[in-house]
Write a structure and sequence with these properties.
4-stranded mixed β-sheet, 5 helices, 4 strands, 41% helix, 17% strand, globular
Length: 169
């Protein structure tokens, strides 16, 4: 089964989720620093210990390259890794659309969204509300970088303390 295909059973969906999260945690794509970069932001979910930095090279309104670094749980790392492959070549509007689609998927508002590619496997988080903030942190951090903000979080208790922090949809 490929990541773009909708799993046909709950067991198949869980296996795809587990395998992709582990693969991206063990071998994250685009992990490291990007020199030079045009945009950057730091994402922190202090309560769970996730800390990510996302750096972008944007030209002519499109993301040409993405790198991320930091220490985070398997879900946040996998989400950042998949996101880093998904958004290359996209403009801010297309990224915002993908972020909204991703949020709807992990909230359980839609069962599948083939346009998300491998990110679709994280739809399993619809059954794990406490872990959704981990998967959304890279997206909030990417949005902060594109908006020129330095910080982002997806923890409700920290949003007030982080000026301009992005909130999940």
């Amino acid at each position: 089964m490929s990541a773009g295909d909708a799993p046909t059973s709950a067991a198949g969906a869980h296996a795809l989720y587990r395998d992709l999260v582990l693969e991206h945690k063990r071998r994250p794509r685009n992990f490291g620093t990007l020199t030079p970069h045009t945009h950057a932001a730091d994402g922190v979910n202090a309560l769970c210990g996730d800390r990510l930095r996302i750096e972008l090279d944007c030209r002519a309104g499109r993301v040409l390259a993405v790198r991320f670094s930091g220490e985070s749980c398997a879900i946040a790392t996998a989400s950042a890794s998949m996101l880093s492959e998904h958004v290359v070549g996209l403009d801010a509007a297309a990224i915002a659309d993908a972020a909204a689609r991703f949020a709807r998927l992990i909230e359980g508002e839609v069962d599948a969204d083939a346009s998300l590619g491998e990110l679709q496997a994280l739809g399993e988080l619809r059954d794990h509300a406490a872990r959704r903030k981990c998967a959304l942190l890279p997206w909030a951090t990417l949005a902060a970088a594109l908006d020129g903000r330095e910080h982002a979080t997806t923890e409700a208790s920290d949003r007030a303390s982080v000026p301009g922090a992005a909130a999940p949809d």
